[in-house]
Amino acid sequence: MSDKKVVLAFSGGLDTTYCAFYLKDKGLDVHTVIVNTGGFSKEELKETEKRAMSYGVDSHKCLEETSNFYEKCLKYLIYGNVLKNNTYPLSVSAERAFQALAIAKYAKSVDAHYIAHGSTGAGNDQVRFDLIFQIICPDIEIITPIRDNKLSRQEEIDYLATKGVNISWEKAKYSINK
């Protein structure tokens, strides 16, 4: 097992882009992974891979979980019209669990020593990721740069600018789930 290999849950957004550069700066071999549960087009997945590789990561992988997510979860949420406050579909929280499971299994399969995610510490995604990672791969250390360093979005943007990443982060003001 490489003591430098980190699997990074990577969406290609501000937080995970910051994580990719930060983890590389810490001397780790960064292997990004995105989990498709049905919300991405082939073009978006290719663009995310292209972006990750341009950031100098060691590898990028797309884990396809669309059918699994639908068959084991989403169809039941749809059939049951499961909504929070009769308005908000609970599919996002369920989706995070499937993403975390796929990432944890992948990290184990590549003998990663670390697993990282870009959750900020402000929401429930961090709990979902951390809990599932701790259960599925308790021997793999979890790294959470955004949460641990208590970074603002502006601090992330400024850091990335020093790395030559000059992407408009106007859209980064808010997180959007498809």
Structure in words:
The protein is of the alpha/beta class and 178 residues long. The chain has a single domain (5-168), classed as HUPs (Rossmann fold, 3-Layer(aba) Sandwich), CATH 3.40.50. The chain is 48% helix and 16% strand. The chain contains 7 helices and 7 strands; from the N terminus they run βαβαβαββαβαβαα. The protein has helices spanning 14-25, 42-54, 66-79, 91-109, 125-136, 145-149, 153-162, and strands at 5-9, 29-36, 59-64, 83-84, 88-89, 114-116, 141-143. Helix 3 (66-79) runs antiparallel to helix 4 and helix 4 packs parallel to helix 5 (125-136). The longest helix has 19 residues, at 91-109. The chain is globular, with a radius of gyration of 16 Å. The N and C termini lie far apart (36 Å). The model has no long low-confidence stretch (mean pLDDT 89).
